[in-house]
Amino acid sequence: MEGQIVSLILHGCKVARELESNLPKLADDPNMLSKSCDEVIKAFGTAKERLYTQDPTAHDPGHMYLFREPQESQQPKIEASLQGWLRSSYTQTMDMFPMQLQAERSPSFNMQESGSNAVLVAGLGGGEVEGSARSWSMGGDQLRPLDASDSGIGSSLQRQRRRKDDGERRTVKMAAPRIGNTEIPPEDGYTWRKYGQKEILGSRFPRSYYRCTHQKLYQCPAKRQVQRLDHDPNTFEVTYRGDHTCHMSSTAPSIPPLPLTATEITHEMAQIITTQPPQSNSVPLSRWLSMEHFSLRAGAVRSTSGMVVGGGAGPSSTRSGKEVECPVADMADAMFNSGSSSTSNSMDWFLGDKWESGDKEGK
DNA sequence: GTAATTTGACCTTG
DNA sequence: CAAGGTCAAATTAC
Predict the structure, then answer these.
(1) Is the CB of A344 under 7 A from strand B?
(2) Which of A19, A94, A124, A220 is the most buried (most CB within 10 A)?
(3) Considering only CA atoms, which of A253, A184, A260, A188 is closest in space to residue A220?
(4) Nearest to A175 by CA among A117, A91, A232, A237
(5) Would you say residue A208 has pLDDT above 90?
(6) Is the CB of A214 under 7 A from strand C?
């Protein structure tokens, strides 16, 4: 079973690599491009499916919980990790490649996975905004043009706010962690800053509003709403709006919010898995992943990471006095060094009840 | 001291 | 006008 999955993933990687190396040639051939993309997606998708069917009872709230319970038995964890990564990478890829994937998903994209804890429920808020929804991510021309300066207190100008159709909305359902504090909203690798909380009619739990921590620095328009489900308090419904434009910055999110190529996805999985505690039993999957894909890093990953695929709105690809790190390294760094300034760092859930106040009931 | 969160007020939308 | 979304001063955390 596992061997099949591995070969599926390998196949996906292979196709992705081929696609990457042939990209210049294929650029003029949308058919071939599409075909290759299909194949990659199919391979990973199938692998993922199998992972789920392999252990339908697995309750994996997503990659954010990968590092919980280091003392747990390793083998199931590895698989859960892989699942989490596949799933999160997949949804994240959806998140980052909306334009590319648009053609491949139905207008009302609906990815449901039985037994899955991260479910992309809805694609677009409305089909008609599809074309215009993204134009702001490049120049910020129509999205909150006054955002940075509309704090016009003292000026006679009224605050100007825009809400109407500020972009695609993607809703993901994520399970609360079962261990530790189940109140915490799900981590997703980005750093968010809470800017509001609101009681929602008919909901027992308030909705929390977050924006990208780097909004100011890079005019990153990404936002998210976190709402605990009424009927299932263990599940959070997370709605994302806007795309991160802070991808390539070093001061930007420490965890790579990069659009992941297929090779990157697997590579990151490898990275994650190889960072499992050393007492880990021999894990064929992880060994394969680490051996197979470390070599990708220098070539494929780096080159693709230098290419801002999702619109190229990210800030400069160099950081002050320092070359852009491989996002994976960044992530690992962030994961284990907790150097980020954000308190919503990805390690928070790992260690404490930090988020509690962020989603407490009532005001 | 700086950055993040809280929270009531304000704004937009339907 | 009600509800949802955002702002920003005050507060809290680091």
Answers:
(1) yes
(2) A220
(3) A253
(4) A117
(5) yes
(6) no
